[in-house]
Amino acid sequence: MSTETLDLGTVGCWTKRHLLGLEDLSAEEITLVLDKAEVFRKALDAGQRRFPLLGGKTCVNLFFEDSTRTRTSFGLAARRLGADMVDFSAATSSLSKGETVIDTAKNLQAMKIDVAIVRHRTPGTPHLLAQNLHCSVINAGDGAHEHPTQGLLDILTIRQRCGRVAGLTVALVGDIFHSRTARSNIWGLKKLGAHVIVCGPSTLVSPRWQELGVEVSYDLDAILPRVDVLNLLRIQFERQATRPFPSVREYVLLYAMDGRRLAQTKKDILILAPGPINRGVEVTPEVADGPHSAILDQVTNGVAVRMAVLWLLTQATRTG
Ligand code: NCD
C-alpha cells in the first residue's frame, strides 16, 4: 500500500496548533482524530510502515518523567510519517545545572523544531510551553491533569471493539485521584455520549468527581453487571505521599479484576488498561492476558492515534 492509496481525506474541522487536553476538544474534533487514526491503523495492519507525509518536519520528545509506551510510540509515529525525531532525556540534560524548562525548550526550538511532545510531573507545563514556543506542543502527560493521546487511544479501542461509544457504560477503576488518564477519558467519553463511572477506594475517588458529570462508586462488585468497558488504572504508588489504603492485599480483595469478578460481568465485557500494569494488584494475569483484554491492542492503536495527531497538527491552518 502506498500513500496514494491511503485515503486520509482532508483535515476537516481541525484548526488547532496544539493538543493540550481532551477538555479543549469538541466531539467533532475527537471523532476526526479517531477517524484518521483508523485509516493509519488499517494501513499499519496491512503491513505499511512508511508514510512520507511529514518529510522535512522535526519532532522532539521532551520527557521529564519516565515512559515506555507513550515515548516509544510518539517516536515510531513521527519516523513512520517521515519526520526527524530527537529524543531529549531530562536525566542527562542541563536541567541538572539549573536550566529552566522554558529555557531548555526554547534552546531546542532554536534548532528548528516543529513539534514538541512534552511530559512533566507539573500540571500545566505543556500549556506554559505552548504560550512560549512557536512550534506545536503535544501534552504527553502533565502530572495528574491530562494525557490526551492516551484518552484518544482508549476511546478508539472502545469504538473499534464495541462498534460505538454513545450509550456505553465505561467504568474507570482504581487510582482516580492521581490519574491523568482518568481525566482525559472522562472528557472524551462524555463528549461522545458514554456514561462514565469512577470507582475505587474513597481515599482515591472524591465525591466531587460528580461535578464532572460522572457517577461515583466505591463498590466494584455492585457496578460490574452493568458496565460495558472496564478501564483498570494503575495504583500510582510513586505519586502517593501517604498510603491510601491499609494494605495492597485489602485493595486486591475489593478492587482487583480477577476471574471470579469477570464471571459477574456482561459476557462481552471489554477490559482496558493504559499500562504499565501492576500484575496481581489492579488486574490478575488471567484477566490481563485473557480473551476480553485489549491491553496490547491499545498499544497498537497508540501509534495510529499519534500518527493522526502529528499529521493533523502539522497540516492544519493554525489558529491556536
Ligand atoms: C500512564 C501515564 O503515564 O500517565 N501510562 C501511559 O502513559 N501509558 C498511566 C500510568 O502511569 O499508570
Structure in words:
The protein has eleven helices and nine strands. The model has no long low-confidence stretch (mean pLDDT 93). It is globular. Helix 2 (69-80) crosses helix 11 (295-315) and helix 5 (148-162) crosses helix 11. The protein has 320 residues and is of the alpha/beta class. Residues 69-70, 141, 147, 150, 180-181, 234, 236, 274-275 line the site of N-carbamoyl-L-aspartate.
How many DSSP H or I helices?
Answer: 11
Report strand order across the widest sheet. 7-6-5-8-9
Q: What is the end-to-end distance? A: 34 Å
* Structural class by sheet pairing and helices: alpha/beta
Binned strand content: 5-15%
User: Which regions are unreliable across 5 or more consecutive residues at pLDDT < 50?
Assistant: none
Q: Averaged pLDDT, please?
A: 93
Secondary structure: elements and pairs:
Layout: H1 27-45, E1 58-63, H2 69-80, E2 84-89, H3 101-109, E3 115-120, H4 125-132, E4 136-142, H5 148-162, E5 169-174, H6 180-191, E6 195-199, E7 215-217, H7 220-223, E8 229-233, H8 248-255, H9 259-262, E9 270-272, H10 285-288, H11 295-315
Parallel strand pairs: 1-2, 1-3, 3-4, 5-6, 5-8, 6-7, 8-9
Bound molecules: N-carbamoyl-L-aspartate.
